Amino acid sequence: MTTAFIIVGVIILFLIVSYNRLVKYSVRVREAWADIDVQLKRRADLIPNLIETVKGYASHEQDTLKEVLEARSKATSMNIDISKAKPEDLRAFAEAQNGLSGALGKLFAVAENYPNLKANENFLELQRELSDTENKIQAARRFYNGVVRDFNTMIMSFPTNLIAKSFGFSKRDFFELEENAKEREAVKVDFSS
């Protein structure tokens, strides 16, 4: 009788510990996604200031400025609930963010033609902040993908997979850029030359 209680107790303890680990990692996935979202919002908030600074120097480059603003609008209009996101949702989200990175690259290429702009203190500070933000976005993506990897591994590992299936935990998708995408290259913001 006591052996049966011990076995049942061990099973219950295992179920509780496994369930709590799944909850912990599920929360970590959402937290990691929120970190990406914070950095993307920070980048989006820097762009209007950058546009205004460039506008004063490159008023005839309205098409490029408009393209950056449109890409920013598209990128910031997409909201994803990571717990319900499908692979195509993440791809569309990444595509919008990559479009913004590409538009920023064009803006910086335009800025190369304006020596006074390259020496402007506000522009230099915005350039540094944007570069820092791009690095933080990459770090947040890596962290998110690492947490998703750990969560998915736990969900697919026996016997935790049985508990995960019973309680409705499902695999999460990685936040990836498309293969051979031009956007894989970091936005170059070095105006020191």
Give the structure's gist in a few sentences:
The chain has 193 residues and is mainly α. 75% of the residues lie in helices and 0% in strands.
Report on this structure.
The protein is 75% helix and 0% strand. By secondary structure, it is mainly alpha-helical. The chain is elongated. The N and C termini lie far apart (81 Å).
How many strands? Answer: 0
CATH topology: de novo design (two linked rop proteins)
Number of helices: 6
Q: Tell me, briefly, the overall form.
A: elongated
Please describe the topology of this protein.
Blueprint: H1 2-57, H2 62-77, H3 87-111, H4 115-119, H5 121-156, H6 160-166
Question: What brief labels describe this structure?
Answer:
193 residues; 6 helices
